[in-house]
Amino acid sequence: MVETPISEADGALLDRVNRALSKHSALFADITPDFISDMSVKEYGFGEIIFSEKKCEKALGLIVSGGAVAKKKRADSEVVMSGFSEGDIFGAAALYTDSDKYTSEISSLAKHTEVLFIPQRRMTELFSVNADAAIAYIVLLSNKIRYLNDKIDSFTSPNAFSKLCRYLCENNSTKGIPMQTLAKVLDMSRMTLYRNLEILVSCGAVRKDGKEIVVIDRSKLCE
Among 19, 28, 11, which Cα is nearest to 125's? Predict the structure, then answer.
């Protein structure tokens, strides 16, 4: 892991940070450059642990670049809970909990995954002067609860095709999703993934763009 203080960041890194923050305009609408001036961006290599039961901090994690995956570890297996890409936030539900443990393991899915950690104290300061930011945070938590409820339903999905459709429906984006990321997040072999993607391509739900998948008709995935 490599840590870069915001005060020492170059223009390109600051641009990436601001772009990620802008994806949560309701939450960070009124912040000034001073809000992040004493924070740091941490860069993780592929497979490196970002958060775990034994390694976490009271902070929001904002994906600045790259990607990550959250998994729930069991004695003899693991369950993929969610995937994160540029602009996504993790750690929201644990920010104000009494527990010192994080409930899942989050690891990097890219060779270079940059994460800005926003401390609990800084979020508390923001909420104390900005009611709209506090409401936006509540909305964020509510959406995560809904997502987890849907995730519970997905555990009973009858096959890989249903799991793929559900993931693409819930992670609809104008940006392409790397097929390698899909395979890892869904814990699916490449052969199974490619076979099911061909079905979605043929029905006009998605299209291939090099090694990425772009959703073009969400309604066909969410039926």
Answer: 28
CA distance 63 to 19: 10
**Cβ proximity of 132 and 29 under 8 Å:** yes
Q: Name 162's Cβ contacts closer than 8 Å, sequence gap at least 6.
A: 154
3-state secondary structure labels for all residues of 52-96: CCCCCCCEEEEEEECEEEEEEECCCCEEEEEEEECCCEECCCCCC
Question: Alpha-carbon distance 140 to 91, whole Å?
Answer: 11
Bridge partner list, 108: 68
Ordered domains of the chain (ranges, CATH): 2-154 (2.60.120.10), 160-220 (1.10.10.10)
Bridge partners of residue 33, in order along the sequence: none
Query: Which residues touch 163 (CB under 8 Å, ≥6 apart)?
Result: 154, 157, 186, 188
- Indicate yes or no: pTM above 0.70: no
Is pLDDT above 80 for 143? Answer: yes
- Arithmetic mean of pLDDT, 142-148: 78
Position 150 scores a pLDDT of 65
Check whether 53 has a pLDDT greater than 90: no
**Strand (E) or helix (H) holding 181:** helix 179-185
